Amino acid sequence: MSTTVEVGASAEALLAQVGEALAKGDKAAAAVAVDKLLAQDGEHLEGWVARALVAELRGNKARAQQSWQRVERVLVYRGKTSVFALERTLFAAARHYIEADNRERADLFLEELLRRFPLGDSSARSQLLIAERAFARRQYSVTIETCKQLERVTTRHAASTRCRGLRFAAERLRNAGVMAGAGARRWRWLSPGVTANTLRGVWIGKRALFAVGEAGTIVRRAGRKTELMKSGTRWALNGVGGSPGGAVYAVGAGGVVLALDSEKADTWRVLRAPKPHQADLYGVYSARSGHAACVGASGTLLEMSGGSKLAKRTIAKVNLRGVTGFGPSDLWIVGDEGTLLRVEGAGAAKRLRSDTYEDLWGIAPVANKGHVHAVGSKRTWVYHDGKRAKEDIVSLVHLRGVTATGVKQAFAVGTGGAALRWDGRKWRQERTGTALDLLGVAGRGGRVLAVGAGGTLLRRAGSTWRVEAGGVREHIVGVSSGLSPALVLGARGLMMTRRKGGRWTRATLPVLGTYGALYAQGKRFVAVGAAGLVVVREGASYRRVKSGTVENLHGVWGYPGGLVAVGNRGAIVRGADGALQVDRSPTGLRLRGVHGRSARDIVIVGNRGVVLRWRGAGWSTEQSHTLRDLHAVYMAKDEIIAVGAGGVVARRRGRANWTVEQSPIARDLIAVRAQRDGTFLALSRGGEVLRIERDQMVLEDSPAACLRALGSDAQGDPLAAGCYGGVIAPAKALAKPAKRAKPRAKKPRRARR
After folding, report:
1. Which of 319, 313, 277 is nearest to 297 (CA)?
2. Domain range for residue 696?
3. Are strands 709-713 and 481-483 parallel, antiparallel or unpaired?
4. 625 with 548: CB under 8 angstroms?
5. Which whole-number Å values give the CA distances from 134 to 168, 183, 561, in the listed order?
6. Among 171, 384, 399, 505, which residue's Cβ finds the most Cβ atoms within 10 Å?
7. Do 262 and 129 share a structural domain?
8. Comparing C-alpha atoms, which of 298, 344, 294 is closest to residue 318?
């Protein structure tokens, strides 16, 4: 049935007729009504959008393109949108500009759409469209925020359900990080040893030991040689295992499974690539080369026999945390809620009584006995002899790993650096020399090793535990620039210094407090932190300076004789060391970063894209053209760069306006600094390093899982630092200075007769 078009109707009536015709699928009547509307008012914005929509529905691409050009002309002429009557036309305009990647125009229509029809179908569909396009472009932070907004407005819409799945995948991919391309500049660890990344699993083979952890970290130690191996992934690895003399397997987040053909091999193969919707894997057991059993979230069990493909099945409803066995046909598995399972061959999993409801994290076999030890949360220990279980509370901490080196000897480790030894009758506490969480332990023969947070590696020698690597508790918040020795500052006042090619020495800042940022360049040393903390160095001594504020300070920059510090609620502290003042701030938002060219040219950045500028007479605001939080800023000679949430990069060249770009990194960028070659380096909170050039951004190969501060050594080579005292530098900057050859003593000439 066709829709009747009223002759001489008003614009509102004609729009209503367009909506009625579109609802009935009468495209011809809708086209007639639109033409009448535009005949009355040739600059009617919604009329031109409706004309473009009808043309698209009728397959007339040329007419649709012409109509969208007129829409743009009206927008430019008027400078803003008019009030739309139809939800469908608003959605059509928003969708058109989203697909054209014109976010500024899309936002105009989206804001009107959400204001007029907040619970409408088109609002939900437009938000989903934004989330999907952002996900396809790896703008995961945009996907996450868009889906959060959609879920707040409507939870039962089909678009909201789809968006929840997108948000889950985006969060996983953002947290995993991005791999650098082939040929990217590589960075190496300077502190605290082989790695500062948390190690979650350890296994001792016949010729080497392997430890795995965050950001795809794999450590191999063979004899006296300890090395980092390339895993080919930045997804976290949670467990490692193998058969003595055979292949070694590593498993982790996203269901990744890696294989090393032998303990001496150098290349890890990907047996199962990580994907965001795959269940995380936590443990792996191998009875012989070619066999592997992996367990993980949501009751997942993956089995491989004879080197064939991994076969998946679900054997429980809870997360499975650990697996061991007495051969490929006798698997023992532990998991959440006291789960203890036994899988024999291809049969179904048999649930055994564990006498506990606490989560079990680790399991170890007692050789030649068919018995197992299991440990878990809230001090839980379970011993099962194949028939019945014995459960006990054996510690004051959560236990995370266990290994048995004999019938009457076992070791367990847990949070707070806890280690326990079982003598066949009783568990006894042992001192480890660290307070960092221990997450894995392995024993073979007379060797027992434990791994944990911050790259901690402990070895038990005799009856004593020794820290062989890692063990730094503090996170680094500041790095010096151009000093010799280079200096890094921890959140609790730890200071580490190092000359190029030398070792790190440690000291503690004599002024107690929680530190958040450091400026150390030339003769200037200024550290700021919680509750308005400001500390300066005078000669060889340090003193606290009254800042005039109790707000937490997050950023600081110094100049000869003075400093500028910024913090919560728009706090700006400025002036000479002995006469600091709190400036009147144009904003109450949190300020995070500050930098300057001189005492009369300073820029500050903060939350919701705020940019403040000082030119000698007061603070003024500038439009950054982004609403994302900006964390750091750097002023070079002819360019200013600010970085922030979701990998956003804002730039200003000369007197031009600020422009906004999306970096290939989805996590927050928290530091930025200019380099000698005119490029910039930026760091992500997740340990990624980004080189920002004039026309492109390039990822560099960083081994870190966490970075927080950026500086340089005396030669101008960059230094980046982060969690657990971790410091990294480009590989070329690690070489020790060449020693000068001693001049040979000249032989005295014989006197002529």
Report:
1. 319
2. 476-733
3. parallel
4. no
5. 14, 28, 47
6. 399
7. no
8. 298
Token pair for residue 175? 């947290």
- Find where tokens 């450091």 sit: 518
Q: Which two tokens stand for residue 214?
A: 């965050």
Please indicate, yes or no, whether residues 155 and 280 belong to a single structural domain of this protein: no
Is 674 a member of any domain?
yes
**pLDDT at site 65:** 92
**Terminus-to-terminus CA distance in the chain, angstroms?**
132
Q: For residue 753, is it within any domain?
A: no
Domain annotation covers residue 115: yes
Residues contacting residue 347 through CB under 8 Å, at least 6 positions apart: none
Question: Are residues 663 and 613 both part of a single domain?
Answer: yes
Domain count, the chain: 3
Rounded CA-CA distance 686/633 in Å is 19
Query: Considering only CA atoms, which of 664, 589, 596, 600 is closest in space to residue 630?
Result: 589
pLDDT in tens, 605-634: 999 999 999 998 899 999 999 989 999 999
Q: Is residue 183, in this structure, part of any structural domain at all?
A: no
* Sequence letter at residue 63: R
Other Cβ atoms within 10 Å of 147 Cβ, number: 27
- Secondary structure (H, E, C), 511-567: CCCCEEEEEEECCEEEEEEHHHCEEEEECCEEEECCCCCCCCEEEEEEECCEEEEEE
CATH code of the domain containing 712: 2.130.10.10
Strand order in the sheet with 340-344: 320-325, 330-335, 340-344, 350-351
Q: What is the 3-state secondary structure (H, E, C) of 471-519?
A: CCCCCEEEECEEECCEEEEECCCEEEEECCCCCCEEEECCCCCCEEEEE
Reading across the β-sheet that carries 447-452, which strands appear in turn? 438-444, 447-452, 457-461, 464-469
Same-domain pairing of 157 and 217 = no
The answer to whether the CB of 173 falls within 8 A of the CB of 254 is no
Does residue 743 carry a pLDDT above 50? no
CATH number assigned to the domain comprising residue 147:
1.25.40.10
Contact 626, 104 (CB under 8 A): no
Sign of CA dihedral 312, 316, 322, 328: negative
Q: How far apart are CA 196 and CA 215, in angstroms?
A: 11
Q: What is the pLDDT of residues 451-465, one digit of tens each?
A: 999 999 999 988 899
Q: Are 450 and 415 in contact (CB under 8 A)?
A: no
Each residue's pLDDT tens digit, 298-352: 999 999 987 778 999 999 999 999 999 999 999 999 999 999 999 998 889 999 9
Residues 621 and 701 in one domain: yes
Residue pointed to by tokens 């705020």: 610
Pair 380, 484 in one domain: no
DSSP per-residue string spanning 418-469: -EEEE-SS-EEEE--S--S-EEEEEEETTEEEEEEGGG-EEEEETTEEEEEE
Q: What is the DSSP string of 300-362?
A: EEEEE-TT-PPEEEE--SS-EEEEEESSTTEEEEEEGGG-EEEEETTSPPEE---S--SPEEE
* Element holding 659 (H helix, E strand): strand 659-662
3-state helix, strand, coil in the chain (%, to 5): 25, 40, 40
- Distance separating alpha carbons of residues 398 and 356, to the nearest angstrom: 14
Q: What is the CA radius of gyration of the chain?
A: 32
What integer is the mean pLDDT of 244-258?
95
> How far apart are the C-alpha atoms of 326 and 304, rounded to whole Å?
16
Q: 515 and 550: one domain?
A: yes
Same structural domain, 660 and 543: yes
Q: Please state, in angstroms and as integers, the Cα–Cα distance from residue 139 to each residue in 127, 171, 179, 540, 700, following that order.
A: 14, 11, 15, 48, 19
Which of 148, 176, 204 corresponds to the end of one domain? 176
Mean pLDDT of 504-517: 95
Alpha carbon of residue 253 to chain centroid = 13
